[in-house]
Amino acid sequence: MNVETPVRVEDKLFYNRYLVDVGRPHVKVRAHTKPSPQLLALLKVCPARCYELNDKGQVEVTVDGCIECGTCRVIGEPTGDIEWSYPRGGYGVLFKFG
C-alpha cells in the first residue's frame, strides 16, 4: 500500500516565483479610511495572503507573491475597492510545475 503524506498549500506556493514589475503593480487598493466588507473579506480569502491591515486599520496589498487567481477581482473589483489588471508580459507569477 502506498500512502502519500499530506502537503500544505503554503508548501506548494513556496515553489512558485514572482517577477516584480517595479512601480507597476497589477492590483491596487482604492484609498479608504475604513475598509469595506469586501476588502475585509480579502484578508481571509486570498490564497497567497497578499492583503493585510496596516497600522491605521486600512487594507494594503503586496503584489509580489500574488498567484493571479482572480479571487480579489471577483470580490473587490465590482465594488470599486480594487483595480486589477494583468501584469505586463514577462512579469508576475512564474509557476514551477505549470
TrEMBL record:
UniProt KW keywords: Electron transport, Iron, Iron-sulfur, Metal-binding, Nitrogen fixation, Transport
Any Pfam family the entry gives: Fer4_ETF_QO
Keyword Glycosyltransferase annotated: no
Gene3D superfamilies linked to this entry: 3.30.70.20
ETF-QO/FixX C-terminal domain: residues covered: 44-93
InterPro entries (UniProt xref): ETF-QO/FixX_C, Fd_FixX
GO molecular function list: iron ion binding; iron-sulfur cluster binding
Organism, scientific name: Bradyrhizobium lablabi
Entry superkingdom: Bacteria
Family: To ferredoxins from P.putida and C.tartarivorum, ferredoxin I from A.vinelandii, ferredoxin II from D.desulfuricans.
Protein task: Could be a 3Fe-4S cluster-containing protein.
The protein's name in its UniProt record: Ferredoxin-like protein
Keyword Transit peptide: no
